[in-house]
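Holo prediction. Input below; ligand is 2-oxoglutaric acid.
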Amino acid sequence: MKLTSSQIKQFNTDGFLVLKNFADLELCEEILAKVEEHLKEKVSPIESEQEYLQNGDTKVTVRRLRQVFEREGVFKTWMTYPKIRGVLKTLLNDTPVLVLAHHNSIMTKMPQESSRTSWHQDARYWHYENDNLISIWLALDEEYLENGLLEFIPGSHKMRFEKEQFDAQSNFIDEHPKNKELIQTRVHTNLSRGDIVLFHCKTLHHANKNTTDKPKISFVYTTKGLHTNPIKNTRSDFEEIVLEEK
Ligand SMILES: O=C(O)CCC(=O)C(=O)O
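Structure of the complex:
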């Protein structure tokens, strides 16, 4: 698939781009069926809500199924989807490479038990020579504000911030006077099954908790340009897969 010049401009200006009806619906359904199995058995590695909140609770509510690439053929099929390769090549201006160290995951928001994800830039814990990294978010069902849809701050991937605007976990502080006005510029687009959002690793985004009675399940993975090297001996220095155009 080829992006239009206005889509390319939109990504470069805003730091994210929504592509509606992108993924095959049958594939989404197959992914969902497998996800349900992994969630039921809490197949590791996972990130739990309790460890994320560091609240000492011994209960385990899955927040994220991690390292999913090798788990199921349909997960691999999505992460190597031929239709997306040209899109990523255009936006990265380089050959896309799958980064298995980060966002190689299924993200969940369980009713009642999910947490809010504060404003942040994904690059906060990543270690690369530059910022040419894009994540791909796939909605596996309806996503809207009440069940924890992602919201973005347009243009934030190009902004410079002071250290004091972030807390100790590198979350962009809601109540900081310098942040409040910017946060008001946030935008969202409701998503349906098969829609994707491509977002730059420095675009500020957040998501509320799920206040509905149905789980929200999404797939998220990260890619980088071939010439964007991880810093040696960091978490980012991990397995990668080159996505040649098909
Ligand atoms: O669904 C969410 O809570 C947001 C996830 C997110 O922003 C992330 O994984 O970087």
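The chain has a mean pLDDT of 95. That is the main takeaway for now.
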